[in-house]
Amino acid sequence: MRPIGTDPRSVPVGTVQGVAGYFRTSREECAVATEEPETSQRDPPPVSLCIQLSSAEAPASMENVAVFDSPGKGRGLRATKEFWAGDVIFSEASISAVVFDSLADRICHSCFRRQDKLQRCGQCKFAHYCDRTCQRAGWAEHKQECGAIKAYGKVPNENIRLASRILWRLDKDGGVVSDAQLATLEELEDHVADMQEDELKEFKVDIHNFLDYWPRGSKQHTVDHISHIFGVINCNGFSVSDQRGLQAVGVGLFPNLCLVNHDCWPNCTVILNHGNQSAVDTMFHSQRRIELRSLGKISEGEELTVAYVDYINLSEERQRLLKTQYFFDCTCEHCTKRIKDDLKMAGCEVDGVKPSDEQVKEATDYCFEMMDKLDKARLKGDYHEVVKICKECLEKTEPVLADTHIYLLRIWSSLSEVQAYLQYFDDAAEYARKMVEGYMKLYHPNNATLGMAAMRAGVTHWQAGQIEVGHGMICKAYAILMVTHGPTHPITKDLEAMRVQTEMELRMFKQNEYVYHSMREAALKNKPMTMMHEPKSVEEGIKNLFHRRK
Ligand SMILES: [Zn+2]
Ligand SMILES: [Zn+2]
Ligand SMILES: [Zn+2]
After folding, report:
1. Per its UniProt record, what SMART domains does this chain match (predicted)?
2. What spacing in Å lies between the alpha carbon of 133 and ligand 2's midpoint?
3. How many Cβ atoms from other residues are within 10 Å of residue 10's Cβ?
């Protein structure tokens, strides 16, 4: 069995942004200064004010949680008071974070926004920023790195850059960088002893290169300590997404989050909030932070959990992923009782007649084979081929497999995405609806992936002119994202705008269909939906919560 990547952030950027762009007349973007900023040799002004401001906005207090010994899991966090759906249990800034090597010139190294026009650091020519404000805000993190890259003569990989940034930070602030930090980095697991041979080999190469890169003038560390830091990053590094939460663009370390254990059916979700980065002055910036949010009622004393892997996978597959990536055996209720595994591999019942196990197995194997072909066609960007493969597959398997079968869901998801890109909106809408209906039977009602899928389906229905269904789905997505992302997240704000817009359109449509259609035509002509990007391969999205070194 293979993992099914249905992470919300693997949604193609264009599907959502296109409509968001259409709906919103103005978008807050960082103003980009015209000249390339020169890195000053002196430190930019201190940024303590902005840290105070952000902590006033979202308290980084950890008084709602306590560290305890979780039976069978080691250390964990539990609630010290009652919580309800959508409550922020805690929020915290990263000790440090870096942009992926592959996106180093496309993502701002300070605010992690994707921008078309970035400006290079005049010194190292490696770090890129939206503007001088971002450069100033990121200077404390970049200062030593900038000098080290210049001296080293090349740029080390993302693991080494992150380990270095963390060590410089620790050297400056000590093992506990804030009062709210519940454990030192020393206390976190590194699992170096559990690594497989080939993984260990790459690990050692990183440490070797780190030692070459690390400046003589910086505080020297033992190889054991350095290896521990690399190990901690390896099993606790958290994927940092771009400002819309649609693509993984970097990796960071959030020390308190590391203490939250896994459950396949968790009571919390974690989301990255970029805070306010659009203000032109650094003092109004608020920091990028993660938020641990409650998915439903949590009682005082209950352990807080998040899912490290996507629930859509069968329990056996989830357990395998967790073992190889996070080095533990999952004994959660859903794994031990194999809850919903039957639905995920089920055949469909037509007029009380079920297909035989043999038929279901045959259709499942066939689907699996076609998924492989589909991925290859998708990687090549041959989207018409993708459509052909999906349709061929569906013709054979739709009559046999249940609407909760995870391979069928995967085919519907890919097909709707590609059809929306090719602007066959009616077709795209139909498959998106099937996908959401299947997801609703599998996922927790407040699952972020479900919310993002409903958003995508809502947008597609709107594009297909099915305004009523579209509006319903957008409302559903909005209700979920208010819990999982919160009202200040850019995607929730986009959804709010879409909800208002579709509501208005729906009212107009009910009053006068003709006027509505002519206005919509005019609006579409005025601002055609050409912002749609190519559908990305699932590989490019965020497969798992925590980042894995490559
Ligand atoms: Zn920026
Ligand atoms: Zn630099
Ligand atoms: Zn489990």
Report:
1. SET (SM00317)
2. 15
3. 23
